[in-house]
Design a protein that fits this description.
The complex is a heterodimer of chains A (272) and B (232). Chain A has 272 residues and is an all-alpha fold. Chain A has a single domain, classed as Ferritin, core subunit, four-helix bundle (Ferritin, Up-down Bundle). Helix content of chain A is 60%, strand content 1%. Chain A is built from 12 helices and 2 strands, in the order H-H-H-H-H-H-H-H-H-E-E-H-H-H. Chain A has a two-stranded antiparallel ribbon. Chain B has 2 domains: 50 residues, no CATH class; 166 residues, Up-down Bundle (Ferritin), CATH 1.20.1260. Chain B has a two-stranded parallel ribbon with strand order 1-2. Chain B is globular. The chains are: A mainly alpha (272), B mainly alpha (232). Chains A and B meet through helix 6, helix 7, helix 8, helix 10 and helix 11 of A and helix 4, helix 5 and helix 6 of B.
């Protein structure tokens, strides 16, 4: 299954008439609620961050739903990966608390995004795709712990770049932007922990932060995840030239975004 | 004496934000950071003899980030001169060395990006930190890194220019990577790297507003910071 196609089903242009009706009726339902803040007050789950923020969304709801379904797809992938890993017994006992915690966060993200898409924005949350974490028989993450850790790092670093890449697409909604940022930094914490864990175990020499565009000892297939991370210029300022700090350290100090197409290209390796 | 940030609720919604500093209260301001309003005063604001004004709009937010990066950079620079670092193991030396470079790079970046709009150098006060003590240094590092993440996460919604927003996004995830590493140094192998003290049941990390962040930072900064013109 192709992820892009999956997400296209969210777009009314390509839907069947029946689905279109559902889409627009939901949108209509959303309009009737008037604005996001009113709807939030009616949401079933405690959405603290939404109710706590003062401003209401002025962004195009349809576009927000598209972005959040993209994020939800990635969260489905991460949750299923860790849940399968925890159940499989591949994780060393001493590390189980780490991956249980990460699994719990990914599940919380799935539930949160599902709730926001479905009950706040009035859209249709994307269903969980079927994943193939062997990537066509190339990896055995649930039989080999180093492979499990390597793919975990790949997914977390991808997640950080994916959320960052959407900041501009959700910035018209203060609520959604803030929620996305609050997930983004959690993914970055996960990434740092998994990267350092791999190095502690002697499987790699990576640090918690990404040096240049290095994949370390990850499989070559992960190159696209780190492409561009070597950047040292931001807002027209070459920070290496400015500071005299080595390029490796400067590259570590800024994480780079990835576009939706880039991320889906990476994620599609793991779709059944 | 510990600095106090006083920002009366509703002040920033007053129509005349530029002229809110009332220097008749400077005797009180001498005790620390003080913000008072005088929305009925249309006179030009006198120049601040001490202290910095972050400014308004995106410039104000960038100066806010610059202030925090100044604090972090100064902290790690001091760490590298202390007894903890001298006796740290190889991994911790590498981490502290990296963090010093990253934060210095962030600081210099903001200074260059802001140009003439950049605030002056802040005077820091690390007297509450024992730089010979691993426990003290790591606890302070945890405070700074977690605070930085929450500050960027809270400020993002006020940034108008998408390029600035993305740059802030590029930095905040690195601060989060730092925070996770520091927390793991303090409590190795635990789930503190993304602890329940910061992350709620929806899996969302805490955000802090300008007042919360600058109040927390004021323990370590002597220079009064006027953030009254920041967006709200």
């Amino acid at each position: 299954m192709n992820l892009l196609k999956l997400l296209d089903t969210m777009c009314p242009d390509t839907n069947s008439p029946e689905e279109k009706d559902m889409f627009f009726s939901r949108r209509e339902a959303f309009r009737q609620f008037g604005d996001l803040s009113k709807k939030v007050a009616m949401a079933a789950v405690p959405l603290g961050v939404l109710t706590a923020l003062p401003k209401v969304a002025k962004a195009d709801t349809e576009s927000l739903i598209g972005v959040l379904n993209y994020a939800l797809t990635l969260e489905h992938l991460e949750y299923r990966y860790y849940q399968t890993g925890v159940e499989s017994g591949v994780i060393e006992g001493a590390d189980l608390n780490i991956f249980t915690k990460i699994r719990d966060h990914e599940l919380a993200h799935v539930n949160f995004l599902t709730e926001v898409i479905g009950n706040v924005l009035g859209g249709m949350p994307v269903v969980e795709p079927e994943f193939d974490f062997t990537a066509g028989g190339n990896f055995a993450p649930f039989m080999d712990y180093p492979t499990f850790l390597a793919l975990a790092q790949a997914f977390e670093d991808t997640g950080v770049r994916a959320y960052k890449g959407q900041a501009g697409n959700v910035m018209e909604s203060d609520v959604v932007l803030t929620a996305a940022l609050s997930i983004h930094s959690v993914e970055a914490r996960h990434a740092s922990m998994v990267r350092r864990l791999r190095t502690k175990k002697g499987q790699d020499t990576v640090k918690g932060w990404i040096t240049n565009g290095s994949i370390g000892s990850l499989p070559a297939a992960t190159q696209a995840i780190y492409a561009g991370e070597e950047n040292v210029s931001h807002g027209g300022v070459d920070v290496t030239a400015l500071t005299g700090i080595d390029a490796a350290a400067v590259s570590e100090g800024w994480d780079e975004p990835l576009s939706k197409d880039q991320v889906l290209g990476i994620a599609s390796l793991f779709l059944a | 004496m510990k600095n106090e940030l006083i920002k009366p609720k509703g002040l920033v919604t007053n129509t005349n934000r530029r002229n809110f500093l009332k220097f008749g209260t400077m005797s009180v301001a001498g005790a620390g950071l003080l913000l008072m309003g005088c929305n009925d005063d249309d006179d030009m604001m006198p120049p601040m003899s001490e202290g910095v004004n972050l400014g308004s709009g995106d410039i104000g937010i960038l100066n806010y980030a610059y202030a925090l990066e100044q604090l972090e950079a100064a902290f790690y620079a001091t760490v590298l001169t202390g007894g903890y670092f001298a006796n740290a193991n190889a991994e911790e030396k590498t981490i502290m060395g990296d963090l010093e470079k990253h934060e210095r790079a962030h600081r210099e970046f903001f200074k260059a990006a802001l140009g003439s709009a950049a605030i002056a150098d802040l005077e820091v006060d690390f007297s509450s930190i024992d730089f010979n003590s691993r426990t003290s240094v790591l606890a302070a590092a945890k405070t700074f890194e977690d605070l930085g993440v929450a500050a960027y996460n809270g400020a993002g919604q006020f940034i108008e220019n998408v390029d600035y927003l993305v740059i802030a996004g590029k930095i905040v995830s690195v601060e989060a990577r730092h925070a996770a590493a520091i927390r793991d140094l303090i409590n190795p192998g635990s789930d503190d790297f993304a602890g329940d003290d910061l992350i709620d049941a929806n899996g969302l990390e805490r955000t802090l507003n300008f007042t919360d962040v600058l109040t927390a930072a004021s323990t370590y900064v002597k220079t009064p910071i006027d953030f009254s013109q920041l967006p709200s």
